[in-house]
């Protein structure tokens, strides 16, 4: 009996020693993770601006059951699995309370835009949290490989999904245009893989990498089954997305305080059909240039390059009625009209033209490109989806690729037409 007692004591001592070793490893890993909690893209991962690669997750604690129940309670169309990889990202994001508080504040402006685009495309609303993983809701975010904007589009993919890039404009930075493009990509990916987590994984590493991973896993279409065959970054990408769903729904349970937006979220939208410097718009509204550029990040030279053939969207902070006359003059070239000039980097277009020569007709037709929807076309040309359906005798909300759609009723229009699609009251 004495020998048995001695053996039991020895086994318990060995288990305690092993537990101390694991704890020491966990503390060391926790310390390493703490060094990257400011989401430094250069030090961690510059392809998604706040996505460190955590492939050595911390062990789950007894509190894990609470996280799992909370994730289960917010699940809608996408499975939100809980495991040690998800927990590692929850811990990482929760330690950045100030930064997450700022992101929560930004969602008040950007999420209504995402939700409208996703609703029109028919994809789950919760995918909006993916943009935080991608860019921290910064439309000017650029990764080390050139992915740009809120949804971090590479140039080639952006063009496939209808985003324009030239000397004047980069649609990847446009919250509205890029959201419709992201929705189109994710819908295509879901139709191919039949699983939203795989569609999300493909957004990070490309559809071909997911296809190869599925093949290596024996044809299984489940993220956790193919995870080991995906690129290293993508293995953490989906857990980070699930973790962000948790953080954005339960931030107030973790002493994260939502910070107010540092720009106006009450806006109006107009369509501009001429060259207008944003500095002139700011002056007319008596606001800072930053206030205008932050709402219109796609204009690379801070100049709206609108034309009668291709009107451009201008987002404006809601302003006093006393400023309407001044704004009208700027947008219609009454006092200081501007003509297009040869683009030069970091310069404003500045020339003059006679107001009487301004063409006053809106474009009447538009050829549908891949990635476009009736909603995105309606937003672009300042009309309603119901108008497009009526003018083109369409019975569904689908925009046939290659079709030539009528986009206006053909009446004479002013240079500026109120769009109204994204006004926030």
Give an overview of the whole structure:
This protein is mainly α and 425 residues long. Helix content is 46%, strand content 6%. The chain has 16 helices and seven strands. The protein has helices spanning 2-34, 64-74, 84-94, 97-121, 130-135, 155-160, 175-193, 196-205, 207-216, 223-226, 232-250, 278-285, 289-295, 324-332, 374-381, 385-392; strands spanning 267-272, 275-277, 303-305, 312-317, 365-367, 404-406, 416-418. The chain has a three-stranded antiparallel sheet. Strands 2-3 form a two-stranded antiparallel sheet. A two-stranded antiparallel sheet has the order 5-6. Helix 8 crosses helix 9 (207-216) and helix 12 packs across helix 13 (289-295). The chain is globular, with a radius of gyration of 26 Å. The N and C termini lie far apart (80 Å). Residues 1-12, 14-46, 337-362 and 410-425 have low confidence and may be disordered.
Which descriptors would you attach to this protein?
two-stranded antiparallel sheet, mainly alpha, 46% helix, 16 helices, 6% strand, single chain, 425 residues, disordered N terminus, globular
């Amino acid at each position: 009996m004495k020998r048995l007692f001695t053996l039991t004591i020895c086994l318990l001592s060995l288990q305690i020693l092993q537990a101390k070793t694991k704890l020491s490893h966990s503390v060391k890993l926790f310390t390493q993770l703490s060094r990257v909690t400011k989401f430094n893209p250069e030090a961690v991962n510059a392809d998604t601006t706040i996505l460190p690669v955590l492939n050595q997750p911390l062990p789950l604690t007894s509190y894990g059951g609470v996280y799992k129940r909370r994730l289960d309670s917010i699940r809608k169309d996408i499975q939100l699995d809980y495991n040690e990889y998800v927990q590692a990202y929850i811990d990482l994001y929760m330690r950045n309370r100030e930064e997450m508080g700022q992101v929560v504040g930004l969602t008040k402006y950007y999420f209504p835009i995402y939700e409208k685009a996703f609703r029109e495309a028919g994809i789950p609303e919760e995918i909006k949290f993916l943009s935080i993983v991608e860019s921290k809701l910064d439309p000017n975010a650029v990764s080390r490989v050139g992915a740009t904007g809120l949804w971090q589009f590479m140039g080639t993919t952006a063009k496939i999904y209808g985003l324009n890039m030239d000397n004047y404009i980069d649609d990847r930075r446009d919250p509205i245009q890029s959201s419709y493009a992201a929705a189109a990509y994710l819908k295509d990916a879901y139709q191919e893989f039949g699983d939203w987590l795989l569609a999300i994984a493909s957004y990070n590493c490309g559809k071909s990498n997911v296809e190869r991973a599925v093949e290596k896993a024996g044809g299984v279409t489940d993220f956790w089954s193919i995870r080991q065959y995906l690129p290293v970054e993508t293995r953490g990408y989906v857990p980070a997305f699930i973790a962000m769903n948790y953080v954005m729904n339960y931030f107030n349970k973790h002493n994260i305080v939502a910070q107010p937006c540092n720009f106006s979220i009450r806006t109006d939208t107009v369509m501009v059909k001429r060259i207008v410097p944003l500095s002139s718009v700011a002056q007319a509204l008596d606001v800072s240039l930053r206030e205008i550029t932050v709402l219109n990040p796609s204009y690379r030279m801070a100049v709206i390059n609108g034309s009668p053939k291709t009107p451009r969207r201008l987002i404006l902070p809601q302003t006093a009625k006393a400023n309407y006359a001044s704004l009208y003059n700027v947008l219609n070239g009454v006092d200081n009209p501007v003509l297009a000039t040869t683009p030069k980097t970091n310069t404003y277009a500045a020339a003059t033209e006679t107001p009487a020569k301004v063409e006053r007709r809106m474009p009447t037709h538009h050829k549908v490109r891949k990635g476009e929807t009736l909603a995105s076309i309606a937003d672009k040309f300042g009309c309603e989806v119901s108008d497009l359906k009526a003018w083109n005798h369409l019975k569904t909300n689908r925009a046939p690729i290659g079709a030539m759609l009528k986009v206006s009723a053909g009446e004479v229009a002013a240079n500026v037409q109120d769009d109204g699609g994204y006004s926030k009251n």
